[in-house]
Amino acid sequence: MKTVLVTGTSKGIGLETALAFGRAGYKVFATMRNTVMASDFKEIIKNESLDISISEMNVDSDASVKKCIEAIINEHGKVDVLVNNAGIERHGSVEELSMEDFKSIMETNYFGVLRCTKSLLPIMRKNRKGCIINVASVAGHISNSPLGAYAASKFALEAVSEALAQEVKPFNIRVAIVEPGIINTQMAQDIKGALVSKSIYPQVNRFGGLFAASLKTPTPPTLVAEKILEISESNTWKLRHPVGPDSEPFIQWRASMSDEQWIDWNAASDEDWYQSVEQDFGLNAR
């Protein structure tokens, strides 16, 4: 039986990914920071008789990651697939967001991935087999206010994943980056809530409007979970996998502009910006 470890499984993409693997017949190690949040998850596992074990693991902590992964390896011997999904988001302008928020985002979204990856790589390398799937974001390609801090963590994740893929391919270890667009998760709902922000920077409020408009026709996290499972089941060596109806269009749209055009677009007046979003994407972000 194939085994998979999924981080950040208390809700959203992580929860749906753990369930997708469990339903596909994998032995799933579902980890989360606080297992108190897993009551509904446990009920689903019980009702569907899924082979999913829930463990407490805080990816921000060296000790927590070491303890959890060592326990899994000691009992089961290997992990075939690692899904680095755990992530957090803080939104705000560079001036107004605290240094603590910048550090917290990087600790979870970047260093957390490294902790888990480095813990499992020696075993995968010894077995000359494995798959590491890192959940990044369209924000790993595109940096917008008020997501500068979040984008920085995802840019970093994409960069280290690309380097990692080069290092481990000779050991038959596949690395994939999943890049969701706007997905109907609590994280997206929180950005939508930026509409009520009192920021001195207009970008903070109007970007929340873009999320609110997109979430009127929501894309479920199950779509991302299905893509992650598909990558695992395939033999693809493709590195980047945009997911969702807006993911590839957003990436291509940004690529069509020079850096200066992109900055000018984001620095435009509210009226010009809203008109552009409606013209380019058919979304009323007001």
From TrEMBL:
Family per record: Belongs to the short-chain dehydrogenases/reductases (SDR) family.
Coiled coil: none
Keyword list, A-Z: Oxidoreductase
Protein name as catalogued: SDR family oxidoreductase
Classification of source organism: Bacteria, Pseudomonadati, Bacteroidota, Flavobacteriia, Flavobacteriales
MF annotations from Gene Ontology: oxidoreductase activity
Signal peptide range in chain numbering: none
Gene3D superfamilies referenced in this protein's UniProt entry, alphabetically: NAD(P)-binding Rossmann-like Domain (3.40.50.720)
Segments passing through the bilayer: none
EC class (word): oxidoreductase
Superkingdom, natural source: Bacteria
Pfam families in UniProt: adh_short (PF00106)
PANTHER family tied to this protein: SHORT CHAIN DEHYDROGENASE, SHORT-CHAIN DEHYDROGENASE_REDUCTASE FAMILY PROTEIN
EC number: 1.1.-.-
